[in-house]
Write a structure and sequence with these properties.
alpha/beta; five-stranded parallel beta sheet; four-stranded parallel beta sheet; binds phosphoric acid mono(formamide)ester
């Protein structure tokens, strides 16, 4: 089973993943149980194949796999230090890796659709760890898990997504996950060129999920349950070409989309501020100390959710 898109999950599957992630959290905290789970996937290998930069995803997969007893091999800069630099196709690299007998390949790539392309060539499960402006499904699961653990529900929420919604694959994936639950509504706030793209908005319309778009983030904050903020993805262009036929880069941070003291004054006391991280100036450091800031805990949840995913896929017990 490949993990390519957040659309492949159902609420039942998420329930199982969350429950197992919470069990793993308890087991990791207990010395005896920690040793027990470190035998679950002994002698198996996880490959971390990263063609684009990462801290959290790569290292949390690394920790997750090792906590399950797996060996981890990989490259953190495959673009430069793998045979991709000599012109090898992704398909050939994946087929060669499969010859070594790994149980799972975790792939990050700058090209949208690269994970699906790799999966076509692979008998080994491919986990999409972020493909260009496409998706980041395991991030969406850990984001949803963070919300669930805090709110005990994934329904009836007003979620404000802000920042770079055109290239922000984590927001795209989380919207899709939350749209499976009833009575949620969204506000998408960004500059027009970084607005949420039509494929996601069309999906929401099909599913009858209400959303509004705004260039004024503060007007949505007053009754927000969750604020999900994102940085400018300066490392890659928009998917659409400009009028001159050239890739469009957006690199200037609009100051209206820096979350700071004003947002803290407007946001409800019980709301949560999330961010997939890294943060690159779009959240003022003053927010870090606010009790509504959840992004460090959110990142921490990543390891447990990824342990659960690896275990469910490798043990063949993934719920259908
Ligand atoms: N959230 C996330 O994908 O972070 P990294 O780029 O550090 O993996």
């Amino acid at each position: 089973m490949h993990i390519l898109s957040s659309e492949q999950f159902t609420p039942e599957m998420l329930g199982d993943i969350f429950m197992l992630a919470d069990e793993f959290r308890e087991q990791v905290a207990d010395q005896d149980l920690r040793h027990e789970i470190a035998t679950l996937h002994e002698d198996e290998f996880l490959v971390n194949l990263f063609y684009a930069a990462s801290t959290r995803t790569r290292l949390s997969f690394d920790f997750a796999a090792q906590r399950l007893g797996m060996n981890v091999v990989g490259t953190e800069n495959a673009e430069q230090f793998s045979s991709a630099a000599k012109g090898e196709t992704l398909e050939h690299s994946i087929k060669v890796l499969a010859e070594y007998g790994p149980s799972v390949i975790v792939l990050r790539h700058k090209a949208t659709g690269a994970a699906a392309q790799a999966a076509e060539a692979s008998e080994v499960p491919i986990f999409n760890a972020g493909d260009g402006n496409g998706e980041h499904p395991t991030q969406a699961l850990l984001d949803a898990h963070t919300i669930y653990n805090e709110r005990q529900t994934l329904s009836g929420l007003h979620v404000v997504f802000g920042g770079d919604l055109a290239r922000g694959r984590t927001a795209r994936s989380l919207v899709k996950v939350l749209s499976m639950y009833p009575d949620n509504r969204y506000t998408f706030t960004s500059t027009p060129e970084l607005a949420m793209r039509d494929d996601v908005k069309n999906l929401l319309t099909e599913r009858g999920v209400p959303f509004t778009e705004s260039e004024d983030p503060e007007e949505a904050f007053g009754d927000a349950d969750v604020v999900y903020w994102t940085r400018l993805q300066k490392e890659r262009p928009l998917d659409e070409l400009g009028a001159d036929g050239q890739p469009v880069m957006v690199e200037e941070q609009d100051p209206r989309f820096i979350l700071g003291k004003t947002a803290l004054e407007i946001l409800p006391k019980e709301s949560m501020i999330m961010h997939p991280m890294p943060i690159d100036g779009e959240i003022d450091p003053v927010v870090d100390a606010d009790p509504r800031a959840r992004y460090f805990r959110q990142a921490g949840n990543g390891m447990y959710v990824r342990m659960a995913l690896i275990h469910l896929v490798l043990s063949g017990t993934f719920p259908n």
